[in-house]
Structures are given as structure tokens and as C-alpha cells.
Design goal:
alpha/beta; six-stranded mixed sheet; 33% helix; 39% strand
Length: 186
């Protein structure tokens, strides 16, 4: 009786270990969209500088970030880009600073290990003209955790390209939505 009970207990323990190790942990990312806030154009701007902050672990190209910002500003309906500022009291210069930190940690040993990947992306939009400066921030983060047993069952955590793209887009869209609401109240 004891032997049969011990065998069943071991079988249940190993089965639950395999099921938990092999099951994929799903992470749902919120998706912040740019809200079409303005029925007509409120702000004209010229793109000023775009620079990476102190940290850029993802080595993102400036053109990619600039393109995402321009698309978002256009979607809001509030902002229109101009090539030349003819009136420094009427038009804004848009300066952008962005940065990101990506970390990976692991702990444990041969029998059980845990890995964790984290990403934080921040962006600052600064609308400047002769008599005014308006600054808007956006921040988004993501963390994936996973476990492995005996370095066979389970997988280490990773951040895939789609998750990175959504995290970047969420931060940019948050800053644009904040800017749209602020200029609309004006």
C-alpha cells in the first residue's frame, strides 16, 4: 500500500512539474493608441533635434523613433509638420529625447532556474517657441519571467521584437495623447 501510494505521489509531482515547466506563460501587453483628439489642426511644428538619452540598450535608430512620433502626431489631428518656421511666436520647434534600459537576470542552479527580462522606454517631447516651452513625457515598461527545471523543461525568458515595438509605441503614444489634451485645453 505504501509503495503504491509513494509511486502515485511521485508520478503526480513529476507530472505537475512537467506541466508547469512546459506551459507557456502568456503576457498581455496593453496597447496605448493615439486618440484622434482634434477635429482641426491646432499646432504647427518643425522637427528640431532628436537624440538618445544616457541609456540606449536597444541601440534604436533615430529615424525609427522620429517616424513613430511623426505618425502619432499626425494621427491625433492636432499637429501638422512644417518645413520652415516663418513666425517664431506662432509655430513650435519639436525637440525629442528618448532612452531605454533593457536588463536580464538569472538565478538558480541546475535543478531550477528563473530568468527575467525587463525593458523600460521613456520619451520626452518638448514643444518650443519664443515665449513658451511645453514638455510631455511618455513611459512604458515590460517584464517577462520564466522558469526552467533541470535546464531541459521550460524556456528562458526573452523579449521578442513585437513586445519591444509595442513598449516603444506605448510610451510615444502616451506622450502624444498628453500633448494633444494639453493643447486642446488651451
Amino acid at each position: 500500500m505504501k509503495k503504491k501510494f509513494l509511486q502515485q505521489a511521485c508520478l503526480i509531482a513529476v507530472s505537475s512539474l512537467l506541466l508547469s515547466a512546459c506551459s507557456q506563460k502568456y503576457h498581455t501587453l496593453p496597447n496605448t493608441r493615439v486618440v484622434k483628439t482634434c477635429p482641426t489642426l491646432l499646432v504647427t511644428y518643425e522637427f528640431g533635434f532628436l537624440k538618445q538619452g544616457e541609456y540606449d540598450d536597444l541601440n534604436l535608430p533615430n529615424e525609427r523613433i522620429k517616424s513613430l512620433i511623426q505618425e502619432g502626431l499626425e494621427q491625433s489631428g492636432c499637429f501638422g509638420q512644417t518645413q520652415v518656421i516663418s513666425d517664431a511666436y506662432k509655430h513650435y520647434r519639436l525637440d525629442v529625447v528618448y532612452g531605454n534600459i533593457s536588463t536580464r537576470s538569472a538565478r538558480g542552479g541546475f535543478f531550477h532556474s528563473q530568468t527575467s527580462d525587463a525593458l523600460v522606454f521613456e520619451v520626452q517631447l518638448s514643444f518650443n517657441r519664443m515665449d513658451e516651452t511645453r514638455i510631455f513625457y511618455g513611459k512604458s515598461s515590460l517584464q517577462n519571467d520564466n522558469e526552467q527545471y533541470w535546464q531541459i523543461f521550460g524556456q528562458p525568458s526573452t523579449l521578442d521584437a513585437n513586445e519591444i515595438q509595442i513598449t516603444i509605441q506605448n510610451a510615444i503614444n502616451s506622450a502624444i495623447n498628453e500633448a494633444s489634451r494639453s493643447f486642446l485645453k488651451q
